[in-house]
C-alpha cells in the first residue's frame, strides 16, 4: 500500500470512528427525545415531546385541528386528547377532538411536524407550532420565521426537495440518527443561511 493510500485509509477510519462516537453520544444524550420522536407506528418520526403521563405528545400539545378550522395556532388541553398511531394529540375544544377522531390523517402536519425547511436538507429537527403555513390544504410547520422565510425563497423547489428527502431518507427512520447523519454529511444542494 502506498503512503498516500495508507494515509487516506487512516483518515477514513478516523472519520468513521468519529461518526460512530457522535451517534452514540447523541443517542445517549437524547434518550427521552429518542423515545418521544420515534414511535413504532406509521408516523415515525414525529416532532413530539414527553408531557407526563404521555410519552409522546405532538407539537408540545398544539391543537392541529385549529390550523384548519380557525386558521391559527392554538394550544390544546391535556383533558381533550386523542391517540393516533402511538402519538397523543391535544385539542382546544371538544369539536376539534371529534373532528380529529373522525379523520385523523386529514389534520396531521406534514413531515411529522418537523420544520419543513429542515426536511429540505434531510434533517428532522425543530418545528415551532406557532410558525406554520397551509399549502394546498396541508399543514407545514417551521422552526421559526427565518426557516419559513428561507423555505419561501423558492417554495416550489423546496417543497419538491422536502418531499424527496422525507420519502427517501427520513420517513420511518430514527430521527436522532437521521439528524446526526445529515448534520455530518450535508445534502448536495446545502446552503448556509448566509448563502441563502
Task: Describe the fold and architecture.
By secondary structure, the chain is α+β, with helices and mostly antiparallel strands. The protein has one domain (3-184). Helix content is 46%, strand content 18%. The protein contains nine helices and six strands; from the N terminus they run ααββαββαααββααα. The protein has helices at 3-29, 31-37, 64-69, 94-102, 104-107, 116-119, 145-152, 155-170, 175-184, and strands at 48-51, 54-58, 77-84, 87-91, 128-135, 138-142. The strands form three sheets. Strands 1-2 form a two-stranded antiparallel ribbon. The chain has a two-stranded antiparallel sheet with strand order 3-4. β3 (77-84) and β4 form a beta hairpin. α1 runs antiparallel to α9. The chain is globular.
Principal-axis shape equals: globular
Gap between N and C termini: 43 Å
Percent in strands = 15-25%
Low-confidence stretches: none
Helix content: 40-55%
Q: From the structure provided, what is the oligomeric state, counting identical versus distinct chains?
A: single chain
| Count of DSSP-assigned helices | 9
Sheet/helix structural class: alpha+beta
Q: Encode the helix/strand succession as letters.
A: HHEEHEEHHHEEHHH
Residue-averaged pLDDT: 88
Extended strand count: 6
Amino acid at each position: 500500500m502506498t503512503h498516500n493510500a495508507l494515509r487516506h485509509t487512516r483518515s477514513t477510519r478516523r472519520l468513521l470512528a468519529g461518526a460512530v462516537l457522535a451517534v452514540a453520544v447523541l443517542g445517549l444524550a437524547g434518550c427521552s427525545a429518542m423515545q418521544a420522536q420515534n414511535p413504532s407506528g406509521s408516523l415515525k418520526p414525529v416532532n413530539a415531546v414527553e408531557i407526563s403521563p404521555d410519552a409522546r405528545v405532538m407539537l408540545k400539545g398544539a391543537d392541529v385541528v385549529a390550523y384548519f378550522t380557525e386558521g391559527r395556532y392554538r394550544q390544546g388541553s391535556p383533558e381533550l386528547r386523542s391517540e393516533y398511531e402511538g402519538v397523543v394529540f391535544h385539542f382546544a375544544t371538544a369539536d376539534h377532538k371529534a373532528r380529529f377522531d373522525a379523520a385523523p390523517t386529514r389534520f396531521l402536519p406534514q413531515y411529522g411536524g418537523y420544520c419543513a425547511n429542515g426536511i429540505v436538507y434531510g434533517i428532522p429537527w425543530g418545528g415551532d407550532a406557532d410558525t406554520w403555513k397551509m399549502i394546498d390544504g396541508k399543514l407545514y410547520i417551521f422552526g421559526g420565521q427565518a426557516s419559513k422565510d428561507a423555505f419561501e425563497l423558492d417554495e416550489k423547489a423546496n417543497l419538491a426537495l422536502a418531499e424527496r428527502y422525507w420519502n427517501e431518507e427520513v420517513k420511518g427512520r430514527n430521527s436522532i440518527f437521521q439528524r446526526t447523519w445529515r448534520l455530518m454529511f450535508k445534502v448536495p444542494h446545502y446552503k448556509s443561511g448566509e448563502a441563502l
